[in-house]
Write a structure and sequence with these properties.
One of its GO terms (cellular component) is cytosol. This protein has 253 residues and is of the alpha+beta class. The protein contains 6 helices and 14 strands. The longest helix has 23 residues. It binds adenosine-5'-triphosphate and magnesium ion (MG).
């Protein structure tokens, strides 16, 4: 069998050439990193859960008309996606203070923000993904003003969708990060949501108990990450309820 071509290997995923031009296969690894990859571990089952959860959220976005890269899931760890030109920004939406905004502004973790706040980091591991302003983005040409208007509108729509989906299962969406890519239809360019939406890229707190159900469990050694992600998947109906007792995630179709 011909070996498929690896396009990119990142910290959490691998991209392979897809079956048709303009497609890629996204493979979800079990690797977890935090603090700009200073902390690393392999967490059994994480890739399977994130593949399935990202499928769930991206399909939900498609259903409400928010363009994204997801085409279909291939197997436990892989999904077919549309290849796009990733804008080198992490687009972060915050509803409550946590992480860097809490530190920067001296806010208590969990303080509700006056409104959803969108911010950007420049995707550059060597620099530790520094926060950048719209002015930087425009000046360095990473995106145009029209792109930024579209990015904010996409990010806020994703925020409304995800906040509602999580609220319905007793989870507070504190913040999340998305990546946006460009695709070309002839001379026309469109922006789509790319990369992944999973507990790796969101802060999720149980509404009742405040328990953390996201990558902070790994960052701050708060317990078993796979159990936390399995709980998120179970509440969303992505895994059968029996899966709560087993170590390994079980897929349902
Ligand atoms: N639809 C897509 N088309 C092209 N590239 C994509 C698409 N979706 C995601 N990517 C890119 O694939 C890579 C996924 O790998 P991973 O998330 O492991 O990277 P990473 O180690 O976090 O590094 P990076 O800083 O580049 O995100 C990322 O670089 C992401 O920007
Ligand atoms: Mg990444």
């Amino acid at each position: 069998m011909a070996r498929r071509k690896k396009i990119y290997e990142g910290k959490a995923k691998i991209l392979y050439e897809g079956p048709e031009p303009g497609t890629l296969i996204q493979y979800f690894k079990d690797d977890a990193t935090a603090f700009n990859a200073q902390k690393k571990a392999t967490i059994e089952g994480k890739g399977v859960l994130n593949n399935r959860l990202s499928e769930f959220f991206m399909t939900g976005l498609t259903n409400i008309g928010i363009p994204n890269h997801f085409i279909r899931r291939i197997n436990m760890r892989e999904q077919l996606i549309r290849q796009c030109e990733i804008i080198p920004l992490e687009v972060i939406v915050r509803n409550f203070a946590a992480g860097s905004i809490a530190k920067r502004l001296g806010l208590d973790e969990g303080t509700p923000l006056p409104r959803p706040v969108v911010e950007y980091s420049y995707k550059n591991d060597a620099l530790g993904d520094p926060m950048v302003s719209e002015e930087y983005i425009l000046a360095f040409g990473w995106a145009s003003q029209q792109d930024l208007d579209d990015i904010v509108s996409l990010a806020l729509r994703v925020n409304d969708f995800l906040s509602g989906v999580f609220y319905a299962v007793g989870i507070k969406l504190v913040d999340f990060k998305i990546e946006i890519g460009r695709i070309w239809d002839g001379d026309f360019m469109r922006l789509i949501v790319a990369d992944e939406i999973s507990p790796d890229s969101c802060r999720l707190w149980d509404i009742r108990t405040g328990q953390k159900l996201d990558k902070d469990v790994f960052r701050n050694d708060l317990g078993n990450l796979t159990e936390a992600y399995t709980e998120v998947a179970r509440r969303l109906g992505v895994l059968p309820t029996q899966a709560t007792h087993v170590n390994k995630p079980t897929l349902i179709n």
